[in-house]
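User: Could you check the structure of this?
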Amino acid sequence: MLSDYNEKPLHTAIADGTSGLVVFLVALPLCLGIALASGAPLFSGVLAGIVGGLVVGAISGSHTSVSGPAAGLTAVVFAQIEALGTFEAFLCAVFVAGLMQIAMGIARAGSIAEFFPTSVIKGLLAAIGVILILKQIPHLFGHDADPEGEMSFQQPDHENTFSELYAIIGDLHWGAAVIGLTSLALLVIYGKLGLEKRLKVPAPLIVVVIGTLMKVCFDRMSLGTVWQIEESHLVQLPVAANVEAFLGFLQMADFTQLSNPTVYTAAITIALVASLETLLNLEAVDNIDPRQRVSPPNRELIAQGVGNVTGGLVGALPVTSVIIRSSVNINSGGRTKVAAIIHGCLLLSCGMFLPKLLNLIPLSALAAILLMTGIKLASPKLVQQMWRGGKDEFIPFIVTVVAIVSTDLLIGILIGLVVSVGFILHSSYRRPVRRIVEKHVGGEVLRIELANQVSFLNRASLSRTLQEVPDGGHVLIDATQSDYIHPDVLQLLADFEERTAPAHDIKVSTLGFRRKYQIQDKIQYVDYSSRDVQEHMTPAQALQVLIDGNERFRTGQQLSRNFERQLAATAAGQHPLAVVLSCIDSRTPAELIFDMGIGDLFSVRVAGNIVSAKVLGSMEYGCARAGSNLILVVGHTRCGAVTSTVELTSQNQNARDATGCEHLDAIIQSIAPCIDEPTLRSFPRAGADEQESLVDTVARNNVLNVVERIREHSTVLRNMEADGRIAIVGAMYNVATGKVELVTPAPASDDVPTL
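Assistant: Sure, the predicted structure tokens are below.
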């Protein structure tokens, strides 16, 4: 509620302080774990959290986003440290990447994320999840050292993603493995039971605490070296005696590497992936912000760039906006960006004053946290979702995943983009137009609706579509939605109209071309009832036109009509195909339910679609004088006039006494003869559904009665029907489905003449 947000400054400060503490508890194990997964010094992960909180948090325009080291960058960091050889050289790439992000923000490139296909982005996240899973399995079982005894997070294995999996069997540490598997089980149970929401304690914190306690217990139980958690299986942060010593742990970027081309390749990769992840997370965070505030993306890029420049100078991992910590911030009640800054202050204090405590945390517990993060990123639900999206989404997605896991992140993204663009081009090549066969009153017309952008790639497909126009047919080329048409396509259309169409007796109409293409609107088909159409139309054909129109209406495929042209054409005279007697009910407009245009129908509407002298006079004029060759009486379901008639008749009441409407009795008296005795007896006691069914039956009987009364009371119309010049037909319209069904026999069918 809005009242929740109009709080006093003290309340806001308390909410931000509480949220900052919770975010810190979640961020600490993630900072350590992400550094572990990235093959970087663990201290660099904590520094990244500090920079994300203090530097980015202060500059960012977002109220709820929290920045720090991201799981989405682990594969990038790992690969680039390996490519550059030293962590200091990697810091130089981070520094340059930060400058690139600042430049992107100044250039207002905050919309860059919108140009990446969703399938590729989801493939990127899933691939990172797969890499996290594969890289953390060795640590989960205590395989934390390479043959030389160096920590694997300090020195990458120089092999592919699967290489260390084979070494687990020969280097299994039982104590670390039990802690890792227990931590993994706790995370699964915690999530299944929803304990985080109920206990208000983040799962990673529980895992870190329990893992540390298990480590202490194993050490004191003296179970042997296979159970004792040694230093190589623990977090190893440098311990500073004072602030001056702490500052001495900071690492400076090796700027001598600025002449190394690999630094710039790494910087581009970091800047691109970090910016993309930041912008995507920023949009997601704004969506879950209770206040629905919009964060400025360009300012966020600048803030992230300053953060990464700072990180390169002090020895931190690259930072991005991170969705997990941001969502925790919102769910914990964070109001402003002060919460993110508080979380950074707590990380700084912890790194300075509590490193010995942090060095008791087993790496296998952190590996379990990261393993679950990887499973969430590469979840089976995501794969199923992409599969349901069709091959156009699934193939680019799965190719991106395989390419990133098999090569590296930048190459994998590029491969995914190429495949995705290939599908886009293939789709554009196959479907540059919308092909619709329209049945107008003057005959069939093939409408070719051009796309918004028609490039030279669409030429071949459009040519095939034009070749499918039958000899003697009519084609409408509709460019109403087209903003751009390539000159090659324009030349194709000109050649078709000037040479191909005359040779095959094809008429070509054009519509909606922009003025710059110098193609005028030219409609050569008849889309309204003209004198020529009326004279050549038989009663059966007129009825079929209405039935076809109702089918279009019911299925949402109404014809495209130029009402301005119809208005001008019918101003000189009207030549309707049919007279339609329907109810005054607002749900039964004849021109709509039969998908007809201006001048196509004489529409007579009266409550209960009853017949009277005035109605008969209108019908006689429409047929005998105006040339209509069909009378269609249309009743409908759930008719109010029929319902009132049944209710009043069953209660022996008249309309004037019951409603105060002095002229309503004339309508009631016209419909009443259609009610049989069983209906009158059962209606008052019937349920709602049964009453509705009884009313619909009476409405149907009323249509049949009206058809017979037309024949009985109009000699002119009766004789015209006997001579075959008109047909009198009854129908029922279902207000729920939109379908019209005949309740009397249709006139004898005949072939539609060529007009």
